[in-house]
Amino acid sequence: MGIVTLFHLVAVVHFYFGFYYDQKYITEPDQKFRKFEFGGRFIYLTIWNLVFQCIYFTVALLNDLIGSNEPVPKNKPLIRKIRDYLFATFAFPFAFNVGLMFHVLMIIDRNLVMPKEVDEFFPFWLNHLVHTNVMIFMAIELFITPRKYPCIKSAMAGMVIIQAIYLGWIFCIKANTDRWVYNVLSVLSWPERIGFFAFSLSIPITLYFLGQFINNLVWGSKTKEETTSKKKKAKAGKSA
């Protein structure tokens, strides 16, 4: 088993266990936290992102086993295409969106995102699994596996759709519970709220381009070298 495959296996076990523990054992102990019976734990983007990580690393592991990790595979398997798309459009942008937004708001005022009372039923290690480790694993993944980023049109379509669905879900929860999912939305005026939504929606898009930029820095030269090498071999074969 190669190091990349081992890493993906660890990631799969890591995130699936986090998801299982969250769904099985995290219960909000009093009325103060039971205000969101509607939607359960899936009211939070953090849980959506945890699902994204589970799906991505499952696909990445399958690609290790039946696909290809070459910088430029001659015939790119479908599983590799799916892996590359999921990384660029969902896994990387949302991991850093969730992680950065959470830690920034915690620094500003933890009551805006996770009041201290939550520590009573949401363990420290799980908090970091869903808000910190997601970024660490994605950063490692960026540097150990090559990928081709999808075309901007295709990537933006996927990102806009998933963000629109979650934004609609937030308003659906508000309509059914008369409360905002995140405390920060409660202290903002409507103009500020709209600005916050616009800013939040722009972050994953910005992270998409950042990921693409870093990916080109890390893998661009290797991709070009392998492409050039394959072209030379193809020409040599024709000449023979």
Automatic annotation (TrEMBL):
<feature type="transmembrane region" description="Helical">
    <location>
        <begin position="42"/>
        <end position="65"/>
    </location>
</feature>
<feature type="transmembrane region" description="Helical">
    <location>
        <begin position="196"/>
        <end position="214"/>
    </location>
</feature>
<keyword id="KW-1133">Transmembrane helix</keyword>
<dbReference type="Pfam" id="PF04750">
    <property type="entry name" value="Far-17a_AIG1"/>
</dbReference>
<comment type="similarity">
    <text>Belongs to the AIG1 family.</text>
</comment>
<keyword id="KW-0812">Transmembrane</keyword>
<dbReference type="GO" id="GO:0016020">
    <property type="term" value="C:membrane"/>
</dbReference>
<protein>
    <submittedName>
        <fullName>Uncharacterized protein</fullName>
    </submittedName>
</protein>
<dbReference type="GO" id="GO:0012505">
    <property type="term" value="C:endomembrane system"/>
</dbReference>
<keyword id="KW-0472">Membrane</keyword>
<feature type="transmembrane region" description="Helical">
    <location>
        <begin position="156"/>
        <end position="176"/>
    </location>
</feature>
<dbReference type="InterPro" id="IPR006838">
    <property type="entry name" value="ADTRP_AIG1"/>
</dbReference>
<feature type="transmembrane region" description="Helical">
    <location>
        <begin position="125"/>
        <end position="144"/>
    </location>
</feature>
<feature type="transmembrane region" description="Helical">
    <location>
        <begin position="85"/>
        <end position="105"/>
    </location>
</feature>
